[in-house]
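#data-curation
PF: Archiving a pair of folding outputs for the training set. Convention for this channel: one message per protein, sequence first, structure tokens after, nothing in between. First:
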Amino acid sequence: MPFPWLIRLFTLFTIPSFLCLFGYPFASIELGSGHFPGDYSPPSPPPPSLPPLPPPSPCEGDLKGFGSLDTLCVINSSLDLVADVYVYGNGSLEIGSGVKISCPFAGCSIYVNLSGRFVLGAKAVIVAGSVWVEAGNASLLERSVINVSAFGGEPPGESSGTPEGVYGAGGGYGGRGASCLVRDEEFGNGVWGGDAYGWSELDKPWSYGSKGGTTTKEKDFGGGGGGRIKINVTEWIDVRGTLLADGGDGGFMGGGGSGGSIFIKAHKMTGYTWISASGGDGYAGGSGGRVAIDVFSRRDDQKFFVHGGKSFGCPKNSGAAGTFYDAVPRRLVVCNHNMTTETDTLLLEFPNQPLWTNIYIENHGKAVLPLLWSRVQVQGQLSLSCGAVLTFGLARYPSSVFELMAEELLMSNSKIKAIALLPLSSEHTTLFKRVYGALRMSVKMHLMLNSEIHIHGVNDAINDAVVATSLLEVSNLLVLKDSSTIQSSGNLGVHGQGYLNLSGPGNLIEAERIVLSLYYSVNVGVGSELRSLLRPSSSDDAMTQLCESRSCPLELVHPPEDCTVNSTLAFTLQICRVEEFNVEGTVKGSVVHFHLVRSVVVLPSGAISATGLGCSQGIGQGKLLSSGLGGGGGYGGKGGAGYYDNDFVGGGIAYGNVDLPCELGSGSGNDSLPGSTKGGGIVAMGSMEHPLPNLLVEGSLAANGESFEDALSKQGGLAPSIGPGGGSGGTILLFVKALALGNFSIISSIGGIGSPNGGGGGGGGRIHFHWSDIRAGNGYQPIADVNGTVLVSGGLSGGRGHMGQEGTITGKTCPEGLYGIFCEECPVGTYKNVSGSDRNLCSICPAYALPHRAVYNHVPGGATEANCPYKCISDRYHMPECYTTIEELVYTFGGPWLFGFFLLDILIILALVLSVARMRFVAIEESPELHPQCSTQMDKSLPFLRSLDEELNIEKERKWRNQVHRLYFLGPNTFRKPWQLPHSPPDQVKDLVYGLSLLLYCSRSRCSIGEVELKLWSSVVFVVDLAEMCSFMVLSVLPILALVPQGSSCYEDAFNRFVDEVNGVASFHWWEGSIYVILSPVAYPLAWSWLQWRRRKKLQQLQEFVHSEYDHSCLRSCRCRALYEGLKFSCTGYNASILLQIGATSDLMLAYLDFYLGEDEKRSDDPCLHHRYPVSLAFGGDGTYMAPYFFHNDYILTRLLEEVSVSSTVWYRFVAGLNAQLRLVRQGQTFAAIISWLETHGNPTLSAYGVQVDLAGFHLTGTGFSHFGLVMRASETVSIKVVGESKCRCSKSKQQLSRSIRSANGAGHFKDPERPPLQMKSSVVILNSKNIDEIKDEKFTYRVMALFIHHVIPTGRQDLVGLGLCILLLGDFSLVLLTLTQLYTSSIVDFLLVLFILPLGIILPFPAGINALFCQNAKKSVGLARIHAIWNIISLVNVVTTLVCGYVHYESLPRSKSSEFNSWNFRRQDSSLGLGRERVVVVALFIDSVQNSSSTVY
């Protein structure tokens, strides 16, 4: 029996009981009780204070310890208490390890009040109904336990925690106890056991849990309620044990008891502990208790459990969760530890000051706010996760207001419900339905993951439900993900300032009316849906008026600015004051309106639809027969007539305003007929005052009529044998500034399909584009980019009925220059000077005002006048007549003919001036008396060079006497075949070459040292002084050389090294040939000039190389060194010198090496020509046009012939005649004409002097001879005459000379001419009429032209020919410039083609010809004339190319303009101007042709 102090203790800490609302006590859940399960009773006033506590127990007395409570009391033995214990002192209390203090009675209390420390040893146990510890510090060591489970005393008076009846319900405390009794047919909600209490002491719980119910009246099987634990320390607490205040188990026969109370207050808390105030298990589980902590610093991880107990009778309905409150962060947790339940944890009034920070409802926790007006307001976060449910609502009241305010609302696999229950009486039973509660939610961020918010009733079939408006205000971020839904059976306003995202499939926002406003960006993702649907049973006055009205609702054209939910307006879904609205899913509503939206984007997967959401009847309702056959609904077009089995019924009429449609589509059938269809709804974007700035549609925008099959599938009825028609299309009204339709986009308002048994098709709807700002003129900007489809077709009939009539597509009236629905610019070439949208208003521009080479020009806003603007087809033509620069020049002078005469006069005048200047210039240059000889000038002006001049003459005279032999280089000096010296010298100079080898060694070795070491072939070493070098060479070395066998390396190596070095210098680099290969096909004259330049540079390099490498300072005087050139080898002090000199012909294709042997100053025994026989003389050139064959003559050869009495005049005539014949021989031709000329003219003349000349080929190879030339030898019939003082000062006698001549002619140097030369391997082969035919003969293709070029030579008319050529050159240059200008102005491709295929080919003929005309040297004139001819050929090719390009360009021009214009006028102008161009090109071709032939021969 409890003592009086215990009663006072209970009274002090008992929370006030709840009183019944309006005086009604809590009723039993027995059937027919007349009360309502789910009613909640408010708490009673607080009880009076507890009585004083009893006297404390001493340490060594009742506690059986040792020590003192004022210092230290240690209890080492277990205690079994039978009554309450009060421990008080200023010291500490230690309960030893393994000690058990037990008071196993309901409500037994242990109260400890110490100033020191409280220690519960390891494995120590305290068992009681109530444990209260007040101390400075507290320690609960490992595995220690304070257990007050199932020993709770009586709950507060007047509380309803213990269930009544015999249904085995669970006890309630932190939440409601579970009940397995459910009557769905009688109650709209499940029932529960014991009710919750103790909300007012949520932060400091101190109440016992309630006992569970029983299933029999005979015995109470209910589990006991949980006890109480309170630990209040001033500093720290270390909890490593367990605190238990669970409810007792009731088994299968009784309900579980509810959990008790645990409260801990300290400054610091540590340790890993298990703290539980869970409900007990039973037939129906008890609810969880209440746990609260007030700890400033909490470490480690403490586990808290307040879940309900298991229900064996209904496993899915465990007891409700209790509450866990953390006072420092002001956090409330409702967690049911993943135990499913249908029982609620009650959340009552929330504190205002200070606000709670966070509320967590998790792990199948189910919380409810059962108040008439309730507010959930937290300072931080409201989180629902893992099956959590938060329910708003109050029974028996038709209207409730709920508010939810937080910084963040996070929902994961959870629900929020806003419901209320309203009783409806009947004769036999009482029914309940859910009434709309007004949910006013205001958060900054709302995230939903697979979660739901429901604001709707249960029994939607009752039509008199009270409808309230709910507002969801999410200012920053609202995200729905993974099939999250927000649903309301009433009106719903969703407002915010940030971002709204329905991120994926299954996400839904649905209500009867929705206003979504104030967001910056709204995204309806793929598979998501934003839907406003009126309930089929609801009677909406606004919709009814809209279906019956023939006038446009004012709010569609001039909507209000406030963006609030208003049920009196026609809107069912309004998007208001949103910056960006992106649709990838579905937006659906009866009347969808976008107001004050900046941008709407409908992506390919997105759809904005009002299909089948219009009127079920309406003004244009299809007519209906009693048999059920109906015609289609009408609106934009008439509905199709129904026809079945000879029954005919008409469709609905057309109605509405074409220019500003704003009506719903009409249906067919009636409410009682299965498959009755509805018309299309309304989709309106923008308004008169605030048009939509930008609309991009890549998906669909539809307001189609409902088809019979779709209506039947929604209604779920059986298909009738005869059915109604389809609904008509609705309205799409677009107040927009800019519209873009993608390639696969669709804007449609088509009629629905009628029933398959003859129902008529619905008529098409109406689509109107009301452009807000159509800018005309220069400020025009396209307002629509339409690549998709716009449809207003009528619906089909499923049977033999008629198709619905097509609807209307209209647009705002377009200003001048624009036409069509989308106010596009009139096509180029048309103009429009009136307002209207009809295409026929764009008239064709008059063709006479359009010049040739002009096209109509696009102008912004279209042409508004008859004189349509035009532009030339290219910038090269000039306005206003689109003439080229040349044509403007021509027409400035009066036309082509006058300009031609004017140009001809100018050319004649300039040609006269040029011809006179040429005659005077050339005459002056060629006048012999005006140019004195160089020697005269030198004598008068340069007397100090007179001695050098004498030395030069002496050297020139001596050189021909000392010349021994001329060795020719092989090869034509091209990049592929450069000059090459043969390694085997001819027999004439073989002995000289052997001596030269050592001299070369001598020359290279004496430049830097005083002595030189010379090693002979016999390995004898001679050391000589430089002064004695030459005497040694002449007296000792040269005789030895005669004994050296041929082929010995002693004399061959040095000469071979010399040849290799020279050949290396003569070779070209690879890049030189590459440039030649590139230039050859592009501009051959440039390639030829490049080749000649490189040949000249190569000759200079050879001469410089020989001079620098082998000509050392071995001459006796500076004067002598100044006279000598080329390669010289000499020895000082003796009369012996060896000289080598490199020369070349004028065409730089033939090079030779001359050998000179004789004394330095004078030689008395000069050899004559007979000693040199046979003499080989090679031809220069290669037989091409630029380098014809020619015979090279020089002073040495002329002087040698003079020694045998051949005068220079005879020899010059021979050379001139031979060159005249060689000029006619081309590469690939035979030399038959040359052989014949030698036999008939050459040899008969020279034989008189004992000289015979034969044609010969040199150095036969596999591809032919390397060179052609002459072989000069003594005539077999010559008689040597020595008259007086012979010029040939030979020491031999006449007989000896004859023998030497015969020996020379038969020395074996030449092969038998009777043998074919191509089968012989010899260096020289004489060619005659018998073997010349074996040389390949290639016919000259252009023989006629060749004869004309080579034989038509003007004689005696040079001045007249010069005047003609001046006229031709100036004419060619003028026509070239005109042609280039014309080509550039007509076609840049033609200009580049002519200019770059043969670069500069049409410019350089003029300067080349002028050069040839003014050349004073006859030889130079011939060479320049050839180059001039080449350039003229290029000019001819260019002119032909110009002619071809001009013809192609002329043929590519269109022969006629569009049939809309006057094509005759254009053809006339093309013909005249084209003829003018052809005249210019033909004249240029003629002038170039004449110039090519005449300038060449000139």
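PF: Second:
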Amino acid sequence: MSSAALAELAAAERVPSAVGGATTTQQERFSLLLLDDGEYYFRSHTVYYWPPDDKRQLGSLKVCSRSLFFVPRDVQQPIFRVPYEATSAIEASEEPGPNGEDQFEAAASTRIDMRAGGVDAPYIHHKRDFHFRFSLVYASLEDVLPLVEELLLLAHAAAATGGTRAARAEAAKRLAQIIQDHEEMERFNPGWLEEEESVVAEAPASAVTPLAAQPGCAVLTQQRLYFQPFNASVCAAPLQAYALSKVVAVAPRVYQLEGLGLEVFLSSRHSLYLAFRCPADRDAFQAALMQQPALHLERMRSREQWTRDWVSGRISNFDYLMHLNREAGRSFKDLSQYPVMPWVVADYTSPTLDLSDPATYRDLSKPIGALNPSRLAEFRQRYAELQQMMAQPDGGGAGKGGKNGGKAKNGGGKGGAASRAAPPGAPPPLDTPPFLYGCHYSSPGYVVFYLMRSDPQLMLRLQNGRFDAPDRLFWSVADTWKSVLSLPSDVKELVPEFYSNDPSFLLARGGTDFGCRSGGQRVGDVVLPPWAADARDFLYKLREALESPLVSARLHKWIDLVFGRKARGDAAVRADNVFHYLTYDEVALRWLAGEGEPAMRDALRLQMMEFGRTPQQLFTRKHPRRRVLGRGGVMGCLGCFALPTAATAPRPTNQLTGKPYDVRSIPPVSRAVFKLSCTPQREKRQALLAFLEQAAAEGEPEGLALRQTRGAELFLLVKAARDAGEAGRAQAQAPAAGPAAEMQEALVRCVAALAVCPQNRRYILEAGCLDPVAEALHAAQPTVATAAAQALALLAREHSPRLQALGVRTLDALLGMLRQPPTPEALLAALAAVAYLSDAYPAHRTFFERQDLLGLLLQQLQSSAASSSAPVAGTEGAGDHSPTPRPDSRAGLPAGHRAESRAMRRRSTAVARLAAAADDEPDVQPSLVRRQRLQAVAVLLQDESQREAFLAGKSALRALLADCSSASLAVRSGAFECLAALTASDALRQQVKDLKLLPLLLEGAGSGAPHVQQPAAAAVANLCSDPALVVAELGSTPEGLGPVTALALAADEDVQRSASAALWHLAGQPEARALAVQAGALPALLSLAVQQRNVVARELARQALVRCCAEEEGLRGPLEAAAAARGLAASEVAALLKPSSARSFASFAQRNVHHRKLHSDIPSSASGAISRSSSFRSATDASPYSSRAAQLGDMWSQASGSQAPTAAAAAAAATTNGGLSSSPGPGSAHDIAATFSEPAGACTAAAADDKSLASGDASVNGTRDGGRAPPPPVQVPQAPPLPLPLPIITPVSGQPDSPLPAADQEGQRLQQALLPAAVLQGSAAAAEAAAASPRGGVAQRVQQLERTASGLRSGSGPQL
């Protein structure tokens, strides 16, 4: 694969569109961790917030049970929270918004600011009178206010100082009923399932994440496991899907002291943790899951087999400890049961670390609390005093009586002080078991203590919105070790991150300010011991210590303390290993059973969770010792962190099953990576790299997947590179020469090839490959720096804390590549990396903004436009560039490798065509570079300050409009994405009429290329938020709004969402609404409102219909006529127009009663600025919305069962044109639909020279909707007819897993964007007309629309 082809592939995957601001970033800004304990998040609404300066801010309003959150889309603005307790009034505004939106206002005395600039910082509480005004977008007051008002009343009732316990209990009961009603509405939509799927099991459950739980519904089919959150908003994807074929293990879990949890493992670290409502639901769901044929679980070894393998040295210490944690119920998802690892090293002050000295290590036969003799004496004295005070009603042994109800297993033994009668005058007896340590070695507080840099939100949640005092934070390893040896309340062990390859938890990279210590030192990166060169070296040496012979010989003693026979009972007392009684599940359950008050029981359960949980006891006998000096010792350990020896090469181990992988049984790609880590010969290493790069160029991405080994061989590769670097530094070799440099090049090239497969990216990041790749950006060799940039560009698509923790040095290296690229391919990859990092991580985008990246990109775009005949800046000689010849991939490889290579070459894949196009078309590079620059600009324009800076210069906007008419489809796609971001700014809308922007955007929205059509349609929707501007620009005739209405007929689901949003905006202005109705808006919206798969477009279309009928009652009849043509009854139409609020009241009078109660019960002087009258409209009584979905689906199935509508249906559809005529009006949807099925000649000449976009760019594989035939599709240029849009699937943990074969696969979708535009064909006359137009054929396009509309008034066009 040539360097040019690999560069194009690195930049191939399209940057997430900047449509509507920064939806992805906004969702990441808001988290359930921002809520209070026990607070419930209902749903989200898009709104405009009007601050005192009247400069509106677009964002989302999060309706929660105790507060309202406003999340602005500008990441520089803070999220703010308005608690209901501090809110005196919430009412509808008598005046509508500037464009007819419903508005409501709130008066409060408190505002809490969070995450300003996208940085986690302590919450800022403002105490004064506030007046908030919100304009609802895509929603009406009936959808928002009823629920908010009732939640406000309940919050005040629960917080009333004079209220009784019964009143608070009644308020809690009422809130529970509201939540239940809300969840009953959120039914699972069977339309998301594939044709071969059906629901096997369904149960309410919560997706558990650290310190949070997402309520939802778990659904099991024959092929997938689905989770649908109950609080999915209109702007969020509503579904998460996991293929059963990718599940590797299933384990029941104890969640909050009950058997409610079920953890579904996708790898050794990534999993889906479900918590069900009752143990019976969990057991039934697990039983159904285990019976599915698609579930192929790996054969798990028994605990005894694991132990035998560890004793004989076949698996590493780390792997064995992680297995014991999983067996004991520990999970990364539950901080109260987080995996625990031992302190191993005891020397954190020496300049060097001697792993052969026994004094270097901690005594593993004692718990942490017993390492300091003087402190242990104090603990023993307290234990004896507690024994004397313990209740002895029958004079028997300890642990009897009270809530414990029998002998306690956590240390209540026989004999000693516990067996003697209490002396006269002794204090009252206790009914609690005695303990040595009042805290635990693993608790949520300790886990958050260690991970505060990588996950600061966890500490803010645990500390009520603030960080702990700087002196008590994790600022030094040596200080923490001193603390666990001396303080009476500190006996914590370590977490697995200390023995991983990820040092992000030790580095302060997110811009978070943790304050200054008492001595004035700022808390930044963790202060490491003198013997550690950096954070990676620190982790590396800790791993070496964990796997050392001295630790291996005594690790079984620590296992006895934590998981074995000394964890409970008399053995625990003798080993000084007794912790607080509430940390033992068996004791805690007895205490909960003895508490009759539900509120007290819940509070006690929460306290138990904060204490931490003692692991389940796995061994009751003495754990065997590992054989260190014999055969299979630690130096020959075959685990992931084993030390390679000259005699035996290391072998990767399956961390879930414990089986070492057989090199002969693993796939060729995994075998090549494994051999790459242990091959000293340069020629063989080059041959292996050539094979991997050839597989990336010619094979399917799935052919590169390390699914069987789950990336275990990557750990060995990182370790080999690390060892080579250590050896080079010891020999004082130059960094750019020697085995260390060769190994670094091998690792970077290997990562760049493997990262082509999206599934591998997670494995690569987990193995610690990101740090070597980041270091290689500074390499002196251009080929190494280029490969590093390409690898980073591909890894940046995976959301990971490791990417979020990238340092300033790495980001500066990317900027340096943009200024002075070592190769054209490096420039292309660096642009892609910058775009993805800026879009996913607001902190990185803020850094690039401070470095004036926008100015740099605009300058480069201007210079490249000025010399359009020359190569793009930074790509001089791109066409003549030829990569360094590499050995043939078959050289030096065994027969199995050669056979795999031949099989890959025989496949006709998109990547193979891409490589051929890059080799044969040298002029493809300039257009790709310009597109990547434009996409990076589009990401930066998500912030309002950057939009203002862009619009301040007129030349940049003129150049952008010129790019919209470029001959390159790639350049046009990037330019329209910039316009999609710019149109969200009010400043640009003032220039729309002068620039004639709407015709240009409509032309792009009617394009057949999705990468142009989607951002153009989003820009049209943004401009439609000002209906008066649209009418003035397009004219006061139905023909003007016809193209806008016709967007609803597109098959692309993103375009459908934009069309629904645009029509919702137009429905708020009388003139625009009348014109849109005459253009066929009602039947177009109805077709979207009843379809099943595109949930976002469906809800937006329903809201648009509600708004049309609410503003103008005369439209109800035409809508019912259009519904009758589709087979929908009037009752279905009434249900469709019913507000979607879970607590919408039955009548307007009932709402007024609640208003009067609100103002009489909650007097406040701050509420005077708000109108007392409620102006929101009453709802129509109809059947529940939860049952409406199935009814509408059945009716839609009947209406769309035939591709050709009947004459009666066509006549009925014709009468729905605004109720004004019996035939389709001018500019109707019937007329404009024909423009989507016309020949593609208008775009042919403009795109013929662009060899970088896919030939099948507009093709989408169709699926059936629950076995029903989709409605008649609308044909778009350059593509066959498209079926109904596919479901929206949002994978969790960055793992792409969509049930859709093509539409939602990231790699396939973006590889298509770079294929040669070979099928862009059409009429030569239309091509000449388009080429002759200075605006890309806008005038000809508009005339063609008018001619088509006139010709179709006879009814010959495609029917809706």
